[in-house]
């Protein structure tokens, strides 16, 4: 059993100052970072709480009963989140994903969904509005989320075998309830639905084929995610990573596959189709096939910090500007300035000395800024 690292410094409590640049950065919809990557995708974490304890994200030994969640007053309100999202859209964002922790734990999240659904991209169209959930509350919430304006959901599900699933979520939560949630989301029209399975060698690779058999032919897109060294607490080891190439070979042995075109620049999943037309699967290979080259994602933490990479150490504190009386133009200028200075490409550097410069090796927790 890998040694778990108990964090000494709580990354949630450190922040970089978001400054108002001397030369304002107006929102033109065309801002690009230091590598020429546009800003197209905003992931908004609406809570640092979760009701699961998946070992690769929120290990129970660290996130135990004494773990201090962020006080509610420190979280951005729905109005503040919507105001910040409006500035990101003005800089070119087309897609908004709600994450957590577990976003459905945030009370009245439908109110936020309807506020975000009312926003517009620079083209005057509604943003693509999606949400990533562990599915535990989806059966109850699917219809109201759809009515509020949510378009689709991505459900994290690491196995179909009930014992394996209960072991992986580490709170003994039954797989049947997540499957009911997926069925309710389908019923409500929250699609196309995607299902994300993190594959950890020695834990659940034997679930790859049962998951494929279950979801193929249903219109639900199953994606296999390589186990990642996110945060500083999951005791990540390379020998527990099953490369996507190996997962794909296992799958293709039973179901021949053909590669598909990416559906949008910056897409994280490599798309493959079943040769017999039974649908699509995806592979998210941050460890063995870095995709930083066209990464166009920014992340907003639940209390208003902007992170420029899933593996970042620090985020920029927008809340001080928000609550300090900044105008929308000033907020947009600060966001543009932050993005222009972005040079992140951790996955291309993984394993090299350069990988963790700037964060001292303390990467922010995925449970805090969302996947
Ligand atoms: S490692 Fe960072 S820069 Fe690279 S794809 Fe992931 S989030 Fe983007």
TrEMBL record:
Metabolic or biological pathway, per its Swiss-Prot or TrEMBL entry: Cofactor biosynthesis; molybdopterin biosynthesis
Cofactor note: Binds 2 [4Fe-4S] clusters. Binds 1 [4Fe-4S] cluster coordinated with 3 cysteines and an exchangeable S-adenosyl-L-methionine and 1 [4Fe-4S] cluster coordinated with 3 cysteines and the GTP-derived substrate.
Key words of the record: 4Fe-4S, GTP-binding, Iron, Iron-sulfur, Lyase, Metal-binding, Molybdenum cofactor biosynthesis, Nucleotide-binding, S-adenosyl-L-methionine
Record-listed [4Fe-4S] cluster 1 binding positions: 50, 54, 57
EC number(s) stated in the UniProt entry for this protein: 4.1.99.22
Binding of [4Fe-4S] cluster 2, residues: 292, 295, 309
InterPro entries (UniProt xref): Aldolase_TIM, Elp3/MiaA/NifB-like_rSAM, MoaA, MoaA-like, MoaA_NifB_PqqE_Fe-S-bd_CS, MoaA_twitch, MoCo_biosynth_MoaA/MoaC, rSAM
Catalytic activities: GTP + AH2 + S-adenosyl-L-methionine = (8S)-3',8-cyclo-7,8-dihydroguanosine 5'-triphosphate + 5'-deoxyadenosine + L-methionine + A + H(+)
Cofactor: [4Fe-4S] cluster
Binding site for S-adenosyl-L-methionine: 56, 101, 156, 228
Residue span(s) of domain Radical SAM core: 34-265
Family statement: Belongs to the radical SAM superfamily. MoaA family.
Assembly and binders: Monomer and homodimer.
Function: Catalyzes the cyclization of GTP to (8S)-3',8-cyclo-7,8-dihydroguanosine 5'-triphosphate.
Name of the protein: GTP 3',8-cyclase
Organism: Ramlibacter alkalitolerans
